[in-house]
Write the structure tokens for this entry.
Amino acid sequence: MERKKRLALNTSTSLLFQVVTIICGFILPRLILKSFGSEVNGLVNSISQFLAIISFLELGVGAVIQSSLYKPLAEKDNEQISRVIVSGQKFFSKLARILLVYVVILMVCYPFVANQKFGFIYTATMIGVISISSFAQYYFGIINSLLLTADQKGYVSYISQTITLIMNTAACFILIKLGAGIHIVKLVTSLIYALRPLVLAIYVKRHYDLNWNIKYTEEPIKQKWNGVAQHVSAVVLDGTDNIILTIFSNLKDVSYSIVTSGVKQLLLSMTNGIQALMGEMWAKQEFDELREFFGWIEWILHTGTILVFGITSALIIPFVEVYTKGVSDVNYVQPLFAILIVAANAGHCLRLPYNIIILVGGHYKQTQNNYLIAAALNIIISVVAVRALGLVGVALGTVIAMFYQTVWMAWYDSKNLIKWPFKKFLRQIFVDGLIVVVLHLFINLSFMKIWFEMKSVTYISWVILAVKISILVMIISMTINTIFYRTHIRSAIEKSINKIKK
């Protein structure tokens, strides 16, 4: 299967998975909110975040393993592939055992740490049932997923994830409607999700000639511990908000980011398969092709991010009003927090092309200070500001950390890896900002406001508003990009026309 077809298959299946994730992510939390209340929903989300902290102990090894597989996969060196996989599996098996210890500690300590009203047994058993799928993932699934992703066969994982997600949503919907308790609902979720790693293990066994008994005298994963800083930063930037809100604020606040996280994952799905393809180009030293491909990826990701998050910035408050209609135990309408959290998640997506190049090039040790500074900025600013500003303070820390990291990585890539001129990055950021400013100027013009207001707090009114906003954003984006990126626009239109003709 040629590169373009593999990339298209990986992107389409990943996009399908994220769309299903967003849809299911709206259905289940809403059911939990209505059936069990915001406190229970916040508790479940908070426990999930604390369990995700175990991924901190992965210490970036997963990313290094994937980078270590590009060259042997390109050369079809099965012996070296086996060495890397066996070494990686030993690491993740140890991590799974650490997870068991961590879960026990969490069951004992968490009920006293979280600012919530549930009893000890209630909270401890909730942690136990939610942790089942995490253990299965580390013990059976991660190493196979990394192999498939590095080999540009991530679509196998995305398809299995999509199927289990649909199964879980259907099962939980039925259980909640039948009056089952939240513990039973989450237990069923864990058991269904535990099927994923088993499916991947069977696929890898049938399609790869791996020697699980292979011996090695020298560590096959050369930079095994050099991805620590990148991983620490990723965990902090993704998880700090919920954890700090749990400790310093109220569990009710944790439920708010469902919209932006869903949109962010939708954008991230566009990049699945890109890193593996770039990794193959890097391994084969096809640098001219890599630079040309990177130029397109940078523009596509920036344009897509601004399109999606520009729309989100205008629609998030109306959506929250509709989504939480009838839920009166907390005020979910927080405009300033909404703008900041949208900016933070947009920043996460804008940094992707530059982060991918660092991972592909294997520059883990060289870039570790950048990642550690970003993580420290996020934690310090969030902890200091959360007491006074609550949600806004936490989001502010993430926005500042993301901005610093994105600019630094673009500069580093331009100087040390892909040699992509930094002025092109600055130009792209200017275009991004211009689109967002023009959008909100249009929406807030006095004579335009009547066109961009919901007539009633209903999903139908919100959908109508979403169509109007989407059309406006696309017109603005197309106009501004035609001025600054005429060649890209012309080429994209020509490729689209050719595909339609075929």
The radius of gyration is 23 Å.
